[in-house]
Write a structure and sequence with these properties.
This protein is an alpha+beta fold. Among the domains are: about 55 residues, no CATH class; about 25 residues. About 40% of the residues lie in helices and about 10% in strands. The chain is built from eight helices and nine strands. The strands form four sheets. It has a three-stranded mixed beta sheet. Strands 2-3 form a two-stranded antiparallel sheet. Strands 4-5 form a two-stranded antiparallel ribbon. α1 packs antiparallel against α8. The radius of gyration is 25 Å and the shape is globular.
Length: about 290
């Protein structure tokens, strides 16, 4: 191999890596008009009908929605409960907020998944595909909202989390929690439309709402939006995540990984050929 061919190989490898990065970036940038859910916490009464509907839709254990002792401590989602409602505030000012997967526009869980088992669909939901999962659990570590849960006690463990009723969406139905909310707390639709609804509610009743839509920009934007009457940290929301999607922080590094992997064999091959050529020259001189 002469020097010219070696440099052509290096250039081709680098170009392939950079092109791959550009395509991935373009796919992320086109995901603005996906489905979302608007949660107006000012309307939530803590009935937990959403928990019950979620369990029924996905074959999970039915929660006892009449057991108010669950409100004594703040809960998070589990392998058997993909959505939970928590109570905040005192007796005179009870507030409730639903918690589930946020279905990020640029999900860190999907970016960290080596096998694409965790997938951001074009329609909006972030789903998990068992047949592709290798059990690394990187999705759990990377999620800024601590949502994916692993069945540690199962002989055949899986990742469990809300999938925004992906199966129902394929049948042109709404998520079960939305359809079964008796107070109209939940709305389903395109994110852009739901943002307009949220802004209108704030404008028409500015004293009843915090002038912020949680999920509009947090971590690059999410597929679940929230309205509230108090600062969101009072409802257990993380407010220090920033507006940059988590995959953006590592995009340069992740793009350089395939670049290095593609270049390194070519570099080693070039070095080997160079040494062989030099050895042959030395022998001829001797």
């Amino acid at each position: 191999m002469d020097r010219r061919k070696f440099l052509m190989m290096v250039g081709a490898a680098g170009g392939s890596a950079l092109a791959s990065g550009s395509v991935q970036g373009a796919q992320v940038a086109s995901s603005e008009e996906f489905n979302a859910v608007l949660v107006d916490t000012t309307l939530c009464v803590g009935c937990r009908s959403c928990e019950e509907a979620c369990a029924e839709a996905h074959g999970l254990p039915a929660p006892d929605v009449f057991d108010e002792s669950v409100f004594e401590n703040e809960r998070t989602t589990t392998t058997e409960q993909w959505t939970v409602v928590n109570r905040y505030g005192g007796d005179e000012s009870e507030l409730f907020a639903k918690k589930q997967c946020m279905h990020c526009a640029q999900p860190a869980c999907a970016a960290a998944c080596l096998t694409k088992a965790m997938l951001k669909t074009e329609e909006g939901p972030v789903i998990w595909r068992a047949e592709k999962c290798m059990g690394c659990r990187y999705c759990m570590v990377s999620c800024p909202f601590d949502i994916p849960k692993f069945e540690f006690n199962s002989p055949v463990p899986t990742i469990q989390k809300c999938n925004q009723c992906w199966d129902r969406l394929q049948e042109n139905e709404h998520p079960a929690c939305v359809d079964n909310c008796p107070e109209g707390t939940l709305l389903f639709g395109k994110k852009r439309q739901l943002l307009e609804v949220a802004r209108t509610r704030i404008a028409e009743d500015p004293l009843n709402y915090v002038h912020h839509i949680y999920g509009e920009r947090e971590v690059g934007g999410t597929g679940v939006l929230y309205l509230a009457s108090v600062p969101f940290e009072q409802l257990g929301f993380k407010t220090d995540l920033g507006n940059t999607a988590f995959p953006e922080y590592t995009k340069g590094f992740l793009y350089s990984v395939p670049f290095i992997l593609l270049l390194w064999p070519a570099i080693l091959l070039g070095m080997s050929k160079s040494r062989e050529r030099n050895s042959g020259t030395d022998r001829e001189e001797e």
